[in-house]
Amino acid sequence: MRRRTRSTAHHHRLGFTLIELLVVIVILGLLVGLLVPAVMQAVGTAKDAAVAAEIRALSQALADFNSKYGAYPPSRIVLREDGNYSSTGALGARTVSYLRRFWPRMPVSTTGAPTGIPGGFYDFNRNGKLDTDVSYILSGPECLVFFLGGIAQGNSTGGWSMTGFSKNPLNPFEILTTNRTVPLFEFNNSRLEANKSNGAVFPGYLDSLGNSYDSTQPFYCYFSAYGGAGYDPGDVDFAELNDDGVAMIGAFKTSNAATPPAGQSIVVGSPAPNPYTNDPPVPTQNAAGKGDVDTDSPKYPAWQNGQTFQIISAGRDRRFGIGGQYLANGNNRLPFVDGNTSGYLQNSFQTMQANATVTSVTLGPNTRSVEKDNITNFSAGKLD
């Protein structure tokens, strides 16, 4: 009898077929395609939250400054090492009024060179000598760092560190290693960078969304309300361009521009960035007037945070935009409307026509879209 034998030739498949591999690759690709945008969005949201938290911390530091010195810092000043502000105009007068409020015994004068400065002068640029022919103008970003951090000390690597102010009431700007106040905000030294417009003498503070100083100027912008007197749009000018290379300039009626007529407000065109208002930044006419500027109206703009200050980050796109009207509620929070349309009412929205009349620059209806990702101290998260 023939013995039947079982075949031992069992073939075990040790891998995937080409078709199966392709299917796996396609599935993985789909999963990656779904996950990457979600991850990127989560990362972006986390970065936005970090900026919002830092703005809150800066706001608290400004509140501490107000408690200590009796007022919030101004957002544009001029500094003279000889203390002589006799030729610095309205900006010098503003500076002197604040320096005297913060440091009453500090020798400054609007009529000539004062006496009694310890060491003979204020060494703002830390070069060890008196510079009588130089006036250093600090705009909003530098003022934010200067008043919260004190004197900025350069280091060997080209960076900066904040050293507070001297406790000498006659010269709070002495360069001493001891007997100094502690900065009211702990600035990240790697994000302190000089604003090249003032000769790299005073740094501003970069928000954490940017990498370095460039044409978009990603500093935190600071605007002071000057105790309720009104914002000065000229306190921060970066001269941004839109996608067509056109200067983005906003129209404002302001009660404390740098050189206003006595007792009057004036209408100004101010390069981006600018502070924010609740209503149109300039009085505007009705549809019959084509949404143009109403020059007969005495109306001042109602400012966001009208008694304190505004801090603004440019957001992820690194652009501030022209600023102006911001509506906290509603679908169109950053209006820039055609005043010719029947839906427009007098002084209800910021119009393109009024802006063009003041600035001589015609901007399109989508100009303010760059502001949607701006982060401020008066909005919860991004503006839109």
Overview of this protein structure:
With 384 residues, the chain is α+β, with helices and mostly antiparallel strands. The protein has a domain at 77-126 and 134-205. The chain contains four helices and 13 strands. Strand 5 and strand 6 (203-205) form a beta hairpin. It starts with 17 loop residues before the first helix and ends in an 8-residue tail after the last strand. 39% of the residues are buried. Mean pLDDT is 87; it is low at 212-216.
Gross morphology: flat
Q: Which assembly state applies to the chains in this document?
A: single chain
| Helix content class | 10-25%
Rounded average pLDDT: 87
Following the backbone from N to C, one meets helices and strands in this order, namely: HEHEHEEEEEEEEEEHE
Uncertain segments are 212-216
Q: Biggest β-sheet: count, sense, barrel?
A: 3 strands, antiparallel
Strand order, main sheet: write it out.
7-11-13
**What portion of the residues fall into strands of 2 or more residues?**
5-15%
Rg over CA atoms, rounded to whole Å, is 28 Å
Distance between the termini: 91 Å
Say how many strands there are: 13
Supply the helix-strand structural class: alpha+beta
SS field, number of helical segments: 4
Can you give keywords for this protein?
22% helix, 12% strand, 3-stranded antiparallel sheet, alpha+beta
Q: How is this fold's topology laid out?
A:
Layout: H1 18-69, E1 77-80, H2 89-102, E2 135-138, H3 140-149, E3 152-154, E4 160-162, E5 192-194, E6 203-205, E7 221-224, E8 249-254, E9 266-271, E10 276-277, E11 309-313, E12 324-325, H4 352-359, E13 375-376
Parallel strand pairs: 10-12
Antiparallel strand pairs: 1-2, 3-4, 5-6, 7-11, 8-9, 11-13
